[in-house]
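User: Please predict the structure of the protein below. I'd like the answer in C-alpha cell form so I can feed it into my own downstream comparison script.

Assistant: Understood. Taking the following sequence of 313 residues as input:
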Amino acid sequence: MDNSVIVSDIGKCFGHGNHKVRALDGVSLQVKRGELFGLIGPDGAGKTTLFRIVASLMLPDCGHAEVEGFDTVAQYREIRKIIGYMPGRFSLYQDLSVEENLKFFATLFGSDIKKSYPGIQPIYRYLEPFKKRKAGKLSGGMKQKLALCCALIHDPKVLLLDEPTTGVDPVSRKEFWEMLGLLQDKGITVIASTPYMNEAMRCHRVCLLQNGKVVGCDSPENIRRAFPFKVLSVKSAEMFRLLEELRRYPGCHACYPFGAYHHFYCKQGSVQADTLQQFLENQGYTDIKIKESEPTIEDCFMDLMSQGGKDGN
C-alpha cells in the first residue's frame, strides 16, 4: 500500500528570542493510503500544529511534508483540492442553516450538493430533518456531523480530523467513529487526533506525540503487547495515601490512578500480589484488593509519555 501522507523531520517554533516554544521537534511519520491513523498526545503535544502544516495552512521551520505526492509548501493549491479538514473548534457559519453551509462549501470547491450527495448520504441522513435549522442551534453531535459533511462535500482523498469528538456525548462519539469506518470502504485516508483511548483502539496505527516529539508509533495491539511490565490493580480504603506508598515500594516502575484502582507497574516476577498485600496490611491499609491485570492501551501511553518527558525519545 502506497503512502498517502509523508512527514519528514518537521520542526516548528513559536515566539521570539528567549521566549520561543518548540511545538514540533523533528517529527517524522508515514500514513498509508486508506489508513485510519490516530494522533495521540496531551494538550500542547503539537497535534494541531502538525495538522495545520499537513493541511498547508502553516509553514514548517524545517523539514517537509507531502500529501498524495504534493509538497505542502510548493504545491499547496493542489493539496487543498484533495483534503478535507475538521479543526478542533466548530468553525462553520452559525447563522447559516445546515443546507446553506453545505451549499456554501460545495460552491467553494466547484461542486454542488446534488453531485456530492451520494458521498455524504450516510452521514447527512442524520441531519436532513434539520436542514433548515441554523448551525448555531444544533446540538454538539449534530454540529460534528455537519462539519464532517462539509469536509467531505468535495470528495477528498485525505481527511484531517483534529479531536473531532471532544465535548460530544458518548452516543454521538460512537456514531461518529462508525461513520469513519464507512469512509474506509471508500479508500479515504483518515488522520484523526483524539484524547479518548477507546477511540485510539479503532485506528489501524497510532502515533504518540509528547513535547513535540514522536515517542511511539505502531498498531494499538502491538503497542499493548510490547508493554514490558506486569500490571497489578490495587485499591484500598485510603486511595490518596496508597498512591504514594505504592510509588515508593521496591520494584515499582511506576503507578498511576486508573478508575477505582491504581495501576502498579513492576518488572515481571519482581513483585508478588500476596507479598504486596501483606506489606500494605502491615502499613495499616484496610479493604485491600489486588489483582493482576492485562495492560491497557492507556497503560502503554502513560509509560511512553513518561519516557518522552524524561529523555525526549
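That's the full C-alpha cell string. The chain is about 35% helix and 30% strand.
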